[in-house]
Design brief:
- The protein is an alpha/beta fold.
- It folds into 2 domains: about 210 residues, P-loop containing nucleotide triphosphate hydrolases (Rossmann fold), CATH 3.40.50; about 80 residues, Alpha-Beta Plaits, CATH 3.30.70.
- Helix content is about 30%, strand content about 30%.
- Helix 4 runs antiparallel to helix 5.
């Protein structure tokens, strides 16, 4: 488990993390979302033991990661710009990491090299951004970490490689109970891979919740009426957001599907349907209710 307790990190006058508190359970696939500068990368670097907290604490399995080789030997961090030894190849990086990670698995390394289209003896510096990310993933998973932290890992990958990476990561979580944290500004990238999400903004965490719980009980309703009833007619529904365009009424509503449809159909619509909200739509609805300008938060 990773626990942040009033975690604070400052860089001169700027507060990158402002007394944040939340936990990430073992075997979780956790998505950190938020705009650039929200504090996601700083959180990952602090969790990885690269930065020392300026206040509060962060614990990995009950231990502080900063200058703690026992923690770092079971944790792998892939930053937005992965680091490789100058002029190194994948084979060189494999030799490097096997010295520091007791769980290094040569068979897994060879298997991953066969899955990803990368030459083991090609110089990594000459690879594209997407191929360098694939190289970093091969190295990371070959160490068999208990915790895998990744910053904007999907950036530069083509759609096929993105889906492949998601499947491989999900498989590792299922088989080894590995805990994964993925930071991204793109909600859509995280929606079909993460089971928990946290929204960072200006050094704080605005919302942290299980994805199924976040989506449960909230629906998008579209109905056509001729004529459109007064909005007071929809009062029995728990409406989060309402919008009308001509004869089309669009509502974001909390409640049970059957009860919502029963109420709407009793009003005699020409057409009605309930749609599944995307993760982005759920976040927008939740944060607007809380009084935040979500459009500026997610830019």
């Amino acid at each position: 488990m990773i626990e942040a307790k009033s975690l604070t990190k400052k860089f001169d006058a700027k507060t990158a993390l402002d007394k944040i508190s939340f936990s990430i359970g073992s075997g979780s696939l956790f998505g950190l979302v938020g705009s650039n500068g929200a504090g996601k990368s700083t959180f990952l670097r602090t969790a990885a033991g690269i930065y020392r907290p300026d206040g509060g604490e962060i614990l990995v399995d009950g231990m502080a990661p900063f200058e703690n080789s026992a923690v770092k030997s079971r944790l792998f961090f892939i930053p937005d710009y992965p680091y490789f030894i100058p002029q190194s190849t994948l084979t060189d990086m494999a030799d490097f990491y096997r010295r520091y990670y007791p769980e290094w698995n040569r068979d897994k390394f060879e298997k991953l090299c066969g899955i990803f289209p990368i030459g083991k003896k090609d110089k990594i510096v000459n690879m594209s951004k997407g191929m360098q990310r694939q190289a970093a993933v091969i190295c990371a998973l070959s160490t068999q970490p208990r915790y895998l932290l990744m910053d904007e890992i999907f950036d530069g990958l083509d759609p096929v490689m993105r889906q492949l990476l998601k499947r491989i990561i999900s498989s590792e979580v299922a088989e080894r109970r590995m805990t994964v944290i993925i930071a991204s500004h793109n909600l859509r990238e995280l929606e079909d891979v993460c089971d928990h999400v946290g929204l960072f903004h200006r050094g704080g965490i605005l919302l942290e919740r299980e994805l199924d719980e976040l989506k449960l009980g909230i629906h998008k309703l579209q109905a056509v009426f001729r004529p459109i009833p007064l909005m007071s007619a929809f009062a029995p529904l728990d409406i989060v957001k309402a919008e009308t365009r001509g004869s089309l009424v669009s509502l974001v509503v909390r409640g049970h599907r059957e009860e919502i449809l029963k109420k709407i159909n009793s009003m005699g619509p020409v057409f009605s349907e309930l749609l599944t909200l995307t993760l982005e739509e759920v976040f927008i609805s939740e944060m607007e209710v809380a009084g935040y300008d979500i459009e500026n938060i997610l830019k």
